[in-house]
Amino acid sequence: MADKQISLPAKLINGGIAGLIGVTCVFPIDLAKTRLQNQQNGQRMYTSMSDCLIKTIRSEGYFGMYRGAAVNLTLVTPEKAIKLAANDFFRHQLSKDGQKLTLLKEMLAGCGAGTCQVIVTTPMEMLKIQLQDAGRIAAQKKMLAAQAQLSAQGAAQPSVEAPAAPRPTATQLARDLLRNHGIAGLYKGLGATLLRDVPFSVVYFPLFANLNQLGRPASEEKAPFYVSFLAGCVAGSAAAVAVNPCDVVKTRLQSLQRGLNEDTYSGFLDCARKIWRHEGPSAFLKGAYCRALVIAPLFGIAQVVYFLGIAESLLGLLRGPQA
């Protein structure tokens, strides 16, 4: 028996609710991932995720871990809604003959979903990365200024701290990018985002669907709550690690500010080549465990909200009892 059809508004609301809950829970880990991926061998500020978070709290306070969260919370609703709804749409179109989807068709549906979501994902990531990495750049400049002052004064402690540079807001960043580069400024790194998100969806959605199917007691029933959550976590973390090299390149390309002596890049291949030459192949796995820790609960929560049908209940309450 085919699954009960869910209305498009319900799909969009479920995706949005899941995105808001997930981002709120895991955003500090995502910030650590961005900072770890952006630091190059010449100026390493952080040795691990925990070291990054501890230093961030010390220098920027607790809410420093949520720099850029407002961008995600604003745009994650349409992003996750488009991703989940597009995957459902493509799966529905590819299964019109009533037969169970083959693995190839499941991968095609995931490919379509990943392609659709970059409309929102690219500008969201572009703005978020600038805000997340601003603290690392500021800390690096402060450390270098202190070292220079110590060198000038012998072994004496520096007595005057350089004033902190004002940190831009997402609105200011978006305005500057649009003024200087037009709409293309917000879509810098679009190719790298596609190379990350399309393979991610190709791996994630078929893997989730098959893991979720394993936990169904009968073909007509939905999988239990915990099965949907675990399937989302496992599929999300596996897909995240698989595409992490593209995520590292995307993060570097979308970062507008560079630390001292850090490489600049002209495109995807140039970035990948310089990372391989200067930092070695292991650099492509920077932040991989952070990304897995972000994506696993994010997609676990998303699938639970989606399969529980929270939006259907809300829409039912708004419509009231049927005559």
Automatic annotation (TrEMBL):
GO terms for molecular function: amino acid:proton symporter activity; L-aspartate transmembrane transporter activity; L-glutamate transmembrane transporter activity. InterPro entries: MCP, MCP_dom_sf, MCP_transmembrane, Mito_Solute_Carrier. The chain crosses the membrane at residues 12-32, 294-318. One of its GO terms (biological process) is malate-aspartate shuttle. It is found in: Mitochondrion inner membrane. It catalyses: L-glutamate(in) + H(+)(in) = L-glutamate(out) + H(+)(out). Its main location: mitochondrion. Solcar repeats lie at residues 6-93, 101-214, 223-312. The keyword Membrane applies. The keyword Cell cycle does not apply. This is Mitochondrial glutamate carrier 1.
